Amino acid sequence: MKKWYDGYVVNGTSIYNPKSVVEAIMRGTFSNYWTKTETYEALKLYILMDLDGLREKVECLISGERISVNTLKYQNDMTTFESADDVLALLIHLGYLTTAPVFADIDTDAEIFTDNSNNSVADMSSVECMIPNSEVRQEFINCIEDSGWKNVIEAIRNSEELLRLTIAGDENAVAQRIAKVHRDNASALQYNNETSLSCAISLAYYAAKKNYTVIREMPAGKGFADLVFIPDPGYSKPAMIIELKWDKSVETALDQIQRQKYTDCLERFTGEILLVGVNYDKESKEHICKIERCRKNR
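The structure corresponding to this sequence follows.
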């Protein structure tokens, strides 16, 4: 229920979509019950604008990434759009995106507030936005499916096969498929950076969200694991930890997982764990994958 309909948080309290919760209980099925109103057409109109690289930002949002947005530029109307931030801010107001503050140093000149729960300081001119749950994410996919976003839809449709190949340990096939998604869904200007690779990996494994909880930058051991896949209860496939490297080596990625004890984040999981290292060489544009297996017992 949380995966499908949660995602909005007010003062630390989770807010679910009540209509969808009722529909799921009455029908006995988790599905997309988002009400088709005029805002659905508005969503389609707005995300097809390519203001300031909006398309790539929407791709990252669909893949499960968070995007930084300056909400103070928003003009509080549905007609004035000059940048990607304007569109993203509107989608936050319409409920298609949810937010979390971006924490900053206390000596910043930006407008700030203090979060009394942890004495942190946040820059309220900038927040991170994300798609709140599976139901709303499906609305984004519905909007782009017939709108010329062929490469994104292809990556989503092929993601189940990529997951299967990863679990099977086919390193070469996994590297080739990741390379294709990266190549097809990143612009020439953005291709050679770590954010682009991270977004491509998340999109490539889109199907995993069905049976896994996927966590980016998860606190683990002595650091933060790039991607952690935790199987849902009753799903018998292995857990996965993916570490990305840029212009280094795939061995470095796997060594970091072991050295930093990233498997400690799976304290309540028992069973097989896949350790997946992916390295991208920006000169050759080659992607290399290496997969190791270990087992965590009670």
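The two ends are 28 Å apart (CA to CA).
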